[in-house]
Write a structure and sequence with these properties.
Blueprint: H1 3-14, H2 24-37, H3 42-48, H4 57-65, H5 76-89, H6 93-97, H7 105-122, H8 127-179, H9 196-242
Helix pairs in contact: 5-8, 8-9
Length: about 240
Amino acid sequence: MGAEHMMGIWGAMEEGWRKGPWTAEEDRLLIEYVKLHGEGRWNNVAKLAGLKRNGKCRLRWVNYLRPDLKRGQITPHEERIILELHARWGNRWSTIARSLPGRTDNEIKNYWRTHFKKKTKSSSDSPEKTRARLLRRQQFHLQQQLQQQQQQQQQQQQQHQQDQIIDMTRIMSLLDESENRSAPGFEYPTGADEHGILLHSMMNEYAAVAEAQTRVFCGTVCGTWMISMEVITSQKEIITSTI
């Protein structure tokens, strides 16, 4: 079989393959296939899933369609891990990606080349000094994050203290108002008043305390009067017996 004949066969096979950006329908077919059959056997996926793609199904799934992919920019914490692992493993991106769930080896490689490779080339420092400088930058970012968290906590504590002071001021004001009014003739506020419910509860407690204090006072006075009467009676009996 001649070379021209073989080229004709391959050309006929490649005529049906699609190129360019993936469509939403192609993504849907690939996702449904992986859900049913799992990952693997990527050479047959295009044919079995009804896709006219030549060997791009695995890359499309791994880099774009996996449900566990992590979206968004690389975080400072992830950047620190990339720096540490690259110092250990070099350009073994798939090995580094295992320590960063949701990130692909291609994404990590592109991030490294964009953010660090140019700086390493343009610098006359050794790789060790370059990594040390990058690690110092990471530590600086972490310190900034810790300072921001501490400031937020302090602001929350200050706000909480201010709220407590305001609540205590309102309570003391309501107590002053209640003391300036006579308890028997005081009309309790209704729920329509903004402070009515709180004041109503406080006045109930105040009235209960006042009633208890009155009972104690009356009991003390009555007890003292009875003791006094007993003393007077006993004195009368003593005087009568002596006469």
